[in-house]
Specification:
The chain is mainly alpha-helical. It has helices at residues 4-7, 33-43, 55-68, 75-88, 98-110, 129-159; strands at 114-117, 120-123. α2 (33-43) packs across α3 and α3 (55-68) packs across α4.
Length: 160
């Protein structure tokens, strides 16, 4: 039997300092813009396989379209673009609530794809996703995560 004092103890949560999910899919051939963005979102963990709530795809798609004109958009403007994109693709409009769009923007910012400048959002410095991925994700985020995992691997090897 477990003593009652140990039951009342608070168990600390393991909160990661950084987190990244990467998935490998087939090479992209003959895909439309939305499907390309969808596969990117799946590949980077922004979208889960089989997830029907894919508003992050339309959000990133809208930001990529805005990047072409070096536009910076408020969340309300993004919401309007997303509604138009979803209607054009004959998709339902679930998930277009302002709170959900802000939450998805936060996820895109955490992955360094999007930045906020004076309450407006844009693809990070209007740069190419390739450059952003190499500089922010590959060289910075991925390397720090890999180094820390290696620290744990080494400590486990020493412990056993």
């Amino acid at each position: 039997m477990v003593p009652s004092s140990s039951l009342s103890r608070t168990i600390s949560r393991d909160t990661p300092l950084a987190e990244i999910t990467l998935r490998k899919y087939e090479k992209p051939y003959d895909l439309g813009q939305r499907e390309l963005v969808r596969k990117l979102c799946l590949s980077t963990g922004l979208l889960q396989p089989g997830d029907s709530r894919d508003i992050v795809v339309d959000l990133l798609h809208a930001l990529l379209l805005a990047r072409q004109g070096k536009q910076e958009l408020r969340s309300e403007e993004l919401q309007k673009m997303i509604v138009e994109l979803r209607k054009a693709a004959s998709l339902n409009l679930s998930g277009v609530a302002p709170s959900n769009i802000r939450r998805q923007l936060k996820r895109l910012r955490e992955l360094y794809l999007v930045e906020k400048v004076k309450n407006k959002y844009r693809i990070n410095e209007h740069d190419s996703l390739n450059a952003i991925f190499q500089e922010k994700i590959e060289q910075y985020l991925l390397q720090t995560v890999l180094c820390r995992v290696k620290d744990y691997v080494n400590m486990v090897d020493k412990a056993f």
